[in-house]
Amino acid sequence: MPSDLTEVPTDELMKEIQRRLDCNTKEEKRVILIGPPGCGKGTQSPRIKYEHCLCHLATGDMLRAAVAAKTPLGLEAKKAMESGALVSDEIVIGLIEEATKQPECSKGFILDGFPRTVVQAKKLDEMLAKRGQGIDKVLNFVVPDQLLVERVTGRWVHAGSGRSYHEKFAPPKVAGVDDVTGEPLMKRKDDNAETLKARLGAFHSQTAPVIEHYAAKVVALKADRPQDEVAASIQAALGSK
């Protein structure tokens, strides 16, 4: 929202005020999203965030932001990356802990991209337990691998905005061209069948134990259905408050 509120139409301003008032009555929720590339998490996250007044924590984005801002944890992460080492779980947990103290996370969070292993899940649980908190739900986006290959290999992206298209499911008005700017679309280098199949293999082997770790809190979503049907299943899993 612009800093100069005189630029904001009154009806939009009132809707936002009402939304924030409604947020005060929402129950706290801490939610993990698990799903392979192309499963639809990116589509559903904004809906969940808005409906339940949660903050969205994508660990990759958080790492890049911390490095760019040169925070203490960001500097540690940059040192690890420059040396060719993996960023430690402790650094990522530290970033999550810092982020969840922000006002926008007061009603809880959606965690996307973490934890990827049981070790990470246990460290996350320990951090939250120190604050008397825990994970409430784990939404497992289930899509057949073959459909994921079709989804990802048919994807085209506008580099400047990140707008995504699909040659079969959501084609641009003109083939190969962004609807808004008219600029050419591109394919991400990882959006090919060979790379995706390797990523899917790693995903299944790593995350199956995480799903087992949170078994009592996992809701399996049939995520190959239309977006609104998936959203309805998520709403049923998380409740209306």
Automatic annotation (TrEMBL):
Residue span, Adenylate kinase active site lid domain: 155-190
Organism: Gonium pectorale (Green alga)
Enzyme class: transferase
Function in brief: Catalyzes the reversible transfer of the terminal phosphate group between ATP and AMP. Plays an important role in cellular energy homeostasis and in adenine nucleotide metabolism.
EC number of the protein: 2.7.4.3
Cited Pfam families: ADK, ADK_lid
Family: Belongs to the adenylate kinase family.
Stated name of the protein: adenylate kinase
UniProt KW keywords: Kinase, Nucleotide-binding, Transferase
UniProt cross-references to HAMAP family, sorted A to Z: Adenylate_kinase_Adk (MF_00235)
PROSITE patterns attached to this UniProt entry: ADENYLATE_KINASE
Recorded GO MF terms: AMP kinase activity; ATP binding
Enzymatic reactions: AMP + ATP = 2 ADP
